[in-house]
Amino acid sequence: MTLEEGRRVRLTEDLGIGEAVAGAAGAVVGFLSLGAGIEGTVERVDGELPESEEVREYQRLKALFEDYGHTMPVASRERLEAEIAALEPEWAAHRERGNRVTVRVRLDNGFVLDGVHQDVLTAL
Questions:
Q1: Which of 47, 56, 76, 82 could lock 72 by a disulfide, CB 3.0 to 4.6 Å apart?
Q2: Cβ pair 103, 118 in contact under 8 A
Q3: How many degrees, rounded to 5, is the angle at CA 41 between CA 37 and CA 43?
Q4: Which H, E and C letters describe 8-63, residue by residue?
Q5: Of 90, 91, 94, 65, which Cα lies nearest the Cα of 78?
């Protein structure tokens, strides 16, 4: 789905926002959430989240290893494998996120969601 500025959308999932706090002592009295079905208007489309420097470095090192790893001296190849392994968690997190498009939505109840993933919205 492609979202555009000015387009009406509906929240498809309940979103937990945070704890509700009351009193001077700051006692937690509940949990604030927005229920599925709330509608609003897209104010801004941020596009794909940029790749982190670690992700770009992982891709560069992985390509280097795949293209030239078999020709490297053993010590160099092992060092390269260790560097790739160290960047593996960042790469896995990036792949899990996928090509995320985020938007800013002003909901009809006055709340503003900024940086919300497009997958929790549906166009009307």
A1: 76
A2: yes
A3: 140
A4: EEEECCCEEEEEEEECCCCEEEEEEEECCCCEEEEEEEEEECCCCHHHHHHHHHHH
A5: 65
The amino acid present at 35, given as its one-letter code, is G
CA 75, CA 116: separation in Å to the nearest integer? 45
Q: How far apart are alpha carbons 21 and 123 in whole angstroms?
A: 33
Structure tokens at 91: 């790469």
What would the pLDDT profile of 36-86 be if each residue is shown by its tens digit? 999 999 999 886 666 789 989 999 999 999 999 999 999 999 999 999 999
Residues 45, 3: Cα–Cα separation, whole Å = 7
